[in-house]
Amino acid sequence: MTAGEGSLSGAIRELEKETGLVANRQDLLLIGSLKKNNYFLDSYTWKSPEQLKLTDLNLQMDEVYSAQFINLTEWERMNNIQLVVPVLWDRYNLYGSEVGEWIKLES
């Protein structure tokens, strides 16, 4: 986040910067906020209004190593063989049920 920027604006900016994907404010959902030392770590989820393809992504290579679309079974398998960044797995464990409920409501 930059000085004076809210977490929602920061999430939208980072999504576009790192992936090239553009999200509208109303399409992001705050699923949780954690207090860390002297800051808060907000987590948002975004469900694209259209089916995405890998060619839709424009990855910022100094921040994003690679991308792929996977299902939950593959996500768990990747975590079991240590291909998932631990902090992402921790956040999934904290907020996975909220994300699942939101996806069901939006479908």
> How many strand units?
2
Average pLDDT rating: 86
What count of structural domains?
1
DSSP strand content: 15-25%
CA-CA gap between termini: 31 Å
Q: Helical content, roughly? A: 40-55%
Spans of at least 5 consecutive residues whose pLDDT stays below 50 are none
- Sheet of most strands: 2 strands, antiparallel
> If you compute it from the alpha carbons, what radius of gyration comes out, rounded to the nearest whole angstrom?
14 Å
Characterize the structure shown.
The protein is built from three helices and two strands. The longest helix is centred in the C-terminal third of the chain and has 21 residues, at 86-106. Helix content is 40%, strand content 16%. The chain has helices at residues 7-19, 72-80, 86-106, and strands spanning 28-36, 39-46. It is α+β, with helices and mostly antiparallel strands and 107 residues long. It comes from Planococcus antarcticus DSM 14505. InterPro entries: NUDIX_hydrolase-like_dom_sf. This is Nudix hydrolase domain-containing protein.
SSE layout and pairings?
Elements lengths: L6 H13 L8 E9 L2 E8 L25 H9 L5 H21 L1
In short:
The chain has 107 residues and is α+β, with helices and mostly antiparallel strands. 40% of the residues lie in helices and 16% in strands.
Main attributes?
alpha+beta; 107 residues; 40% helix; two-stranded antiparallel sheet
